[in-house]
Design goal:
4-stranded antiparallel beta sheet; Jelly Rolls; 6-stranded antiparallel beta sheet; 12 strands; single chain; mainly beta
């Protein structure tokens, strides 16, 4: 059986080869492993988020789908407290609950185009920022 020309082999990235970058909310930084680009629009937005002790974000809305895997730390998400080994799935569309951590921690995440909404996880100003917008100026859509 011959392999079709559109087939692709695996790609590899190592977390130590990527820099930590500024993320949207206070006390959060990310390492982007894979992310959609014009030439590869179907690629998931995938990476790590490091939360400093005391980091938080308010409830806000997303039209894409996402999965989180907690590697380190303890997080209060809405009314639930979760720790390492917990997987969190957010179907599209969804309101992402408020999140806070006293311990700090690290999550692995995969965000992908919402199967119901058709909305992508990458848009201008979300991951390509040089500084954070004050929460009072954020459009949290909730």
């Amino acid at each position: 059986m011959s392999q079709q020309s559109e087939d692709h082999g695996p790609e590899y990235r190592h977390v130590d080869d990527m820099p930590w970058e500024t993320l949207r909310f206070p006390g959060q930084h990310s390492k982007m492993v894979f992310h959609p680009r014009p030439e590869r629009p179907g690629e998931p937005n995938t990476g790590f988020v490091r939360h400093e002790p005391g980091a938080h974000h308010p409830r806000h809305r997303h039209d894409f789908a996402q999965v989180w895997y907690i590697l380190e730390g303890s997080f209060k998400i809405g009314e639930r407290t979760v720790g390492p080994g917990t997987v969190v799935f957010h179907a599209d569309p969804h309101d992402e609950e408020d999140l806070s951590t006293d311990t700090g921690g690290v999550m692995f995440f995969v965000q992908y185009m919402g199967p119901r909404t058709g909305k992508a996880p990458i848009y201008d100003g979300r991951f390509n920022m040089t500084g954070r917008t004050p929460l009072s100026e954020e459009n949290l859509k909730v």
